Amino acid sequence: MDENRLDNWEIQVSNFLEQYRLFPEAYEEFTEMILTPNQLVASDGTRLETVDSMLKRKAEFYLAERIDIYLDVAVISQDIKTGCNSRGCYCKKRRVEGQCWAWFSHPKIEDIVGDIEECVRAAVTAAIIAAIWADPDAATPAFKATIVACLELKGIEWANEIGIGCYKHEERGQWIPCEN
Asked: pTM for this one?
């Protein structure tokens, strides 16, 4: 980040935290926001230890622009439900799709969405998807390192300042009758 932009960002974060401390009830969404262990790491890779440094980091993520990018399907399965009632016995099924996603957060993130999407396409492999599905927090450091290296090769000097995380989500379809 250039020096002026960094100063403005620091001022914006500081002003937000000052307002939050005065009127915490006005910032319910911020109060309820939970950071993952990956997010509690400074841009130099050191773990944040003090309450003030963690609160500042939380404010940075809260205030920064964020984009979410769909990575791929990790698991496809079916739920099956059987039973009997006064109308007879039944069998129903529905499709379950496990999806892997990544989020990217930085005040200038909108400037490089195309670059991020290109790096994500290059980085996503079956092994990455399996790792994210198994444990998103454990998979994030390797995924982040790959994305940051790709963005740095594209000349984005502030790539290591981008907040990057992975998460998984299940989509469940509608119940439909089983075939006989």
From this structure: 0.61
